[in-house]
Design goal:
about 400 residues, Growth Hormone, Chain: A, about 80% helix
């Protein structure tokens, strides 16, 4: 496949489309207590399920949007997903009960998979190899700003318009991005290359993708890296509080570590064209292993509480390694998909999320309020992902043929 020149405006559009997922999760966090104060709880449901149900909707949306984008085209699939997202947003905005908010959030999660999955397939349609990795790295550089800014944005909107104002924000963003895409972006999958959706063919194509050693192992490796990040996200606030007594300034420390991912993603975008995807991925994997091993050693020496400066430095190094890995592992997994880019993107997203959830659930059970368990989780994920990736990269890249 020959890459084509992609205008920077399109890359910005891709980043904004993809970041809609993170904004939909992070911007609502400050509003959870306000939602429960107004609507109450509905045992066993509570306002915390506003996040859980959104992610649950994504699991199904990711599996549907990919095959749909292969069958009806990237543009129609993306806009269909956005339409479902808009419907869910309106339901949540007008909700008079927590149950209706959760219904709206489920539809939001299902629909947001449209821009998330179809965007990756659109990039795969236009770019290959190092060019694709470079664009995805630049996208991650922009997307990493979202977790830093979205909660503050949500607080500002709540101060002006209450918690329902956040859903007005979601609605405005979805409509603006949908209009931009519909009016300015061409279809990237010609009709003669589309794969009609047939359940039998779908499952056979899915099995072909998962049976491909390279793709299957890279999905697992990506899931381990993502899982390590989930372990941190689930324990970060408690860890900073219990170890270092940090409360009000926690967002600044959180942003400092997260900036490691953004900086590394940006540098990867600059370097991958010179060194290649495989070399950069190996550098990220070994970097994560070394940094997490040093963090574990420091945690053991200082009985689970290494000096804050040392913890921040090693944490920054771990997240910088993750920043290198996310774009490259995804690009490497997508390389063999060819006309199956749509369903392949779905399987990569849902498969890696499943692995990440399982890893985080197991690793998180060992968390004891110290940095030791977190560092051990980083190290296990790094070693596991390194082994899987090295084995995956053996042999030649072969494009998977589609079953029609």
């Amino acid at each position: 496949m020959t890459s084509v020149a992609v205008p920077r405006a399109r890359i910005l559009l891709y980043a904004l489309m993809t970041s809609l997922t993170a904004i939909s999760i992070d911007a609502i966090l400050p509003g959870l207590r306000f939602i429960e104060a107004e609507l109450g709880s509905a045992p066993p449901l509570s306002s915390q399920h506003v996040i859980v149900v959104f992610v649950f909707g994504m699991v199904f949306g990711e599996l549907v949007i990919g095959p749909a984008s292969d069958a009806i085209g990237r543009k129609a699939a993306l806009l269909s997903g956005l339409s479902i997202y808009v419907l869910g947003t309106v339901i949540a905005l007008m909700a008079g009960s927590l149950e209706m908010v959760l219904l709206g959030r489920f539809l939001q999660g299902f629909g947001v998979s449209g821009p998330k999955i179809a965007t990756r397939a659109i990039i795969r349609d236009q770019l290959a190899g190092n060019d694709m990795a470079r664009v995805m790295s630049f996208m991650f550089t922009l997307i990493i700003l979202v977790p830093m800014l979205a909660p503050a944005l949500g607080l500002g909107v709540i101060a002006l318009a209450g918690w329902r104002g956040i859903f007005v924000l979601f609605l405005a963003m979805a409509l603006a991005l949908g209009c931009w895409f519909a009016l300015r972006h061409p279809e990237t999958l010609p009709r003669d290359q589309r794969i009609p959706f047939r359940p039998g063919a779908f499952w056979r194509n899915a099995l072909r993708i998962l049976a491909n050693r390279r793709v299957g192992l890279l999905i697992a490796a990506t899931g381990l890296i993502f899982g390590a990040q989930l372990v941190y996200l689930g324990t970060a606030a408690d860890l900073f509080l219990s170890l270092y007594g940090i409360t009000e300034t926690f967002p600044f420390y959180f942003a400092a570590l997260a900036s490691g991912i953004g900086l590394a993603s940006y540098l990867n975008g600059r370097l991958v064209g010179h060194f290649g995807t495989d070399v950069m991925a190996r550098a990220g994997l070994w970097g994560m292993c070394v940094a997490s091993a040093l963090m574990l050693g420091a945690a053991l020496v200082w009985h689970g509480q290494p000096p804050l400066a040392l913890f921040m430095a090693l944490g920054f190094a771990v997240f910088a390694a993750m920043g290198i890995l996310f774009g490259n592992l995804n690009a490497m997994a997508m390389r063999s998909l060819g006309q199956l880019a749509g369903i392949g993107a779905s399987l990569i997203a849902s498969g890696s999320s499943l692995v990440a959830t399982l890893f985080a659930s197991v690793a998180g059970a060992f968390y004891d309020g110290t940095a030791t368990a977190l560092a051990a989780g980083f190290l296990v994920a790094g070693i596991g992902a390194t082994g899987l990736s090295i084995y995956a990269l053996r042999g030649q890249v072969s494009e998977i043929s589609a079953v029609r």
